[in-house]
Amino acid sequence: MIQIPRIIAHRGSPKAAPENTLASFRQAARDGAAWVEFDVVLTADGRPVIFHDDALDRTTDGAGLIADTPFDVLRNLDAGAWFSRAFAGELIPTLEEALELFAELGLGFNMEIKPAAGREQETAEVALATARASWNGPVPLISSFSRIAVATAKEVQPGWPRGILFDHIAEDWREAADKLEVVSIGANHRHLSREIVAAVHASARKVTAYTVNDAARASLLFSWGVDALFSDIPGTLLKTFP
Ligand code: G3P
Ligand code: MG
After folding, report:
1. How confident is the model over 94-114, as pLDDT tens digits?
2. What's the predicted TM-score (pTM) here?
3. Ligand 1 atom at shortest distance from the alpha carbon of 39
4. Close Cβ partners of 117 (under 8 Å, ≥ 6 residues apart)
5. Which fold has domain 7-41+98-240?
6. Tens of pLDDT, residues 99-157
7. Pocket, ligand 1, Cβ cutoff 6 A
């Protein structure tokens, strides 16, 4: 069974540095995180880059959909100034750049495949092929809310463990988990219960919960047996849960 640290840095350390940037991943390493979670999406011309939203507007000085924007245009955007002037000039990282940095910093990772609608298979294929070609470190966890993306990951990189993500864990979670041969079920922590954690554990799978930024809540979730939490404040939670 894959070893997943209890606290995973969610998009890096996004309260201290702009989310899903190399600066955020460096900060997560300084915070003491062993793993980071990041989101991977394709540009219009099919390059895998690290980005969360469908649209560029919130976290860059650009606008419009990332899926409609070619890589050369993205690379001229500022992905740090929106957060603070200190991070002006930060770029949207390519997947290769992020993995190279993780290797340098000794970070493990959870790659969340975040496909635009209709590009689920393509996004998973490109992200997995790129990651396979540029990563020699410890086995990562590959996850997605998209079952098509998880199924594609199973086909193209069967040796890398997979997780399905939910907001509310769906009624058919066990059937989907069996079919996709996943090792973890991820959920919004607000919709978890002691009972569902026990049920997932009874199927010999781990439970991951996002996004937990409160130590008391983390403590309760761990008391239910939740295996790992994604947090925007990994350094703070790691002080309580080293
Ligand atoms: O993978 C856990 C979490 O990142 C899922 O939600 O929207 O932050 O990508 P989101
Ligand atoms: Mg994510």
Report:
1. 999 999 999 999 999 999 999
2. 0.98
3. 9
4. none
5. TIM Barrel (3.20.20)
6. 999 999 999 999 999 999 999 999 999 999 999 999 999 999 999 999 999 999 999 99
7. 10, 37, 39, 52, 112, 143, 165, 186, 210-211, 230
Axis crossing angle, helix 95-105 with helix 120-134, rounded to the nearest 10 = 40
Closest C-alpha residue for ligand 1 atom 3: 210
Dist. CA 229 → ligand 1 center (Å): 11
Model pLDDT, residue 2: 83
* 1 pLDDT more than 90: no
Cα separation, 64 vs 69, whole angstroms: 8
**Domain residues of the chain, as ranges?**
7-41+98-240
Per-residue model confidence as pLDDT tens digits over 12-48: 999 999 999 999 999 999 999 999 999 999 999 999 9
Q: 146, exposed or middle or buried, with CB in 10 Å at 0-12, 13-18, 19+?
A: buried
Tokens describing residue 192: 């978890």
